[in-house]
């Protein structure tokens, strides 16, 4: 689990604010209507939702994205993450429970080329808001896997949970071992393409209360890590994971120590 702990440390602090606003994109203009069914662009309002992402990714296969809200902002009930220039642009669809508000949620994605990365969020009041950044990265979806196939088989589905306090809020970090193969990578031994095989469903609860759920595509990073602020209710943390090969993993963690 050493690798998981290192990955968690990468997410342990706030993402550095960067002057990399979203740019006009013909790709987004097409996606907005043809994929998301939005007739008009969605307004950006950092007073409701903001995003931190690096201006230039250190590693295109593990780009940290952080969604945040100021105190008093309307609750975000759902958000769709779009990476404009990725082969499968809709990277993830999230649902959030009340205990996650105001949102402070960090995760890692693959970015395949210079691209706008945007979250289109639903406040539950019939209105939407968008937050995003322009990220310079290349090759994230085809980057070689970080370990060999034997290690993948031995560790897939393992999880780690930890929790602590930061700036007066409870912070949980969930780490899941999974290669999340995109279908665009090559086995470094056989040089054959590795079939797509990734986590496509994730549900995280404290007791019966939803923290967040995820429907994902190929753009979520290998060995995903989710770091988030939440309001604890004292109940155990319950994690349910499904992948595209029909594997299912369930694990329950002590609310405090994991």
Automatic annotation (TrEMBL):
- Asked if Signal is a keyword of the record, the answer is yes
Pfam families referenced in this protein's UniProt entry, alphabetically: SoxY (PF13501), SoxZ (PF08770)
Classification via Gene3D superfamilies: Immunoglobulins, SoxY domain
Keywords (A to Z) from UniProt = Signal
Source organism's superkingdom? Bacteria
Q: Where is the Sulphur oxidation protein SoxZ domain?
A: 173-253
Q: Which NCBIfam families match?
A: fuse_rel_SoxYZ
Q: Which residues form the Ig-like SoxY domain?
A: 42-141
Signal peptide (residue range): 1-17
Q: Which InterPro entries match?
A: Fuse-rel_SoxYZ (IPR030831), Ig-like_fold (IPR013783), Ig_E-set (IPR014756), SoxY (IPR032711), SoxY_sf (IPR038162), SoxZ_dom (IPR014880)
Q: What is this protein called?
A: Quinoprotein dehydrogenase-associated SoxYZ-like carrier
